């Protein structure tokens, strides 16, 4: 039985972001010889729905925050960021906005640069933004307005930014206010609906835009190849 996330983003209303310049054209998938997996199709659908919905205000800089501390989201953030690069005309920032003791580039097994840099390329038009570029206290025990201003400054350097965020907390809410908003990552057979509803309401009261939810770690009972024929 194979396991992979099923990515479903809710049709949440997107708050107006007057400082964001709209991008009208969604990314086009490059020509590939092999058919994309269901997982890849879901990632692409998530990117298209989140960043290129024509009926909504433009969204550029989004944090992905899990509901549960045990839910791994680093790979999801990298996959979303990589999908955004497929048009080959947008610069994408992958930003470590977490407080995990293991930093993002270590989580993703990305070798660090030989010299300390604020950002460095990790793929075609894809850039890593390490935690220390905006947060002196890597554990996130103290986040100042100056830190958040620096985070906004870094995201503004890219056409799109994907922020790897900690589980929902006061820090996550602050980061959600420093970017365009958040996507909550729920865990199949683990996240309780009532808790998710409470968190959603808390973010609303904190005036943090919530673009929707992603369901991760869902298992399918039949082989992946059969789903295209259902």
Structural summary, described in words:
It is a single chain. This protein is of the alpha/beta class. It is built from 6 helices and 7 strands. It has helices spanning 38-51, 74-84, 104-107, 145-155, 170-178, 193-205, and strands spanning 61-66, 92-97, 120-123, 126-129, 160-165, 181-187, 210-216. A 7-stranded mixed sheet has the order 3-4-2-5-1-6-7, with helices on both faces. Helix 1 (38-51) crosses helix 2 (74-84). The longest helix is centred in the first third of the chain and has 14 residues, at 38-51. It is globular. The two termini are 18 Å apart.
Q: What percentage of the residues does DSSP assign to strands (E)?
A: 15-25%
| Outline type | globular
> What structural class is derived from the secondary structure elements?
alpha/beta
The strand count comes to 7
The helix tally amounts to 6
Low-confidence parts: 1-25, 226-230
Helix fraction by DSSP (H/I, runs of at least 4): 25-40%
Terminal CA distance reads 18 Å
Taking the sheet with the most strands, its summary is: 7 strands, mixed
Mean pLDDT: 80
Strand arrangement across the biggest beta sheet: 3-4-2-5-1-6-7
Quaternary status of these chains?
single chain
Taking all Cα atoms into account, the compactness measure Rg is 17 Å
Instruction: List the secondary-structure elements in sequence, H or E.
Output: HEHEHEEHEHEHE
Features:
disordered N terminus; 230 residues; single chain; alpha/beta; 6 helices; 7-stranded mixed β-sheet; 7 strands
What's the quick description here?
It contains six helices and seven strands. It has 230 residues and is of the alpha/beta class.
């Amino acid at each position: 039985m194979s396991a992979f996330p099923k990515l479903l983003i809710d049709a949440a209303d997107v708050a107006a972001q007057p400082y964001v310049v709209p991008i009208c054209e969604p990314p086009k998938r490059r020509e590939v010889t092999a058919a994309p997996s269901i997982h890849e199709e879901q990632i692409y659908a998530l990117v298209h729905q989140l960043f290129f919905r024509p009926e909504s205000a433009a969204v550029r800089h989004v944090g992905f925050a899990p509901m549960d501390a045990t839910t791994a989201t680093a790979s999801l953030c990298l996959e979303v960021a990589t999908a955004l690069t497929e048009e080959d005309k947008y610069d994408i920032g992958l930003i470590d906005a977490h407080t995990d003791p293991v930093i993002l580039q270590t989580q993703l097994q990305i070798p660090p640069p030989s010299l300390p840099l604020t950002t460095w390329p990790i793929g075609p038009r894809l850039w890593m933004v390490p935690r220390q570029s905006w947060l002196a206290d890597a554990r996130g025990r103290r986040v100042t307005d100056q830190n958040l201003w620096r985070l906004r400054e870094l995201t503004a350097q890219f056409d799109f930014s994907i922020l790897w965020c900690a589980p929902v907390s006061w820090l996550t809410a602050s980061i959600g206010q420093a970017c365009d908003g958040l996507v909550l990552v729920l865990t199949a057979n683990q996240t309780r609906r009532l808790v998710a509803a409470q968190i959603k309401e808390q973010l609303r009261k904190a005036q943090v835009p919530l673009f929707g939810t992603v369901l991760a770690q869902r298992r399918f009972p039949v082989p992946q190849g059969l789903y295209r024929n259902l």
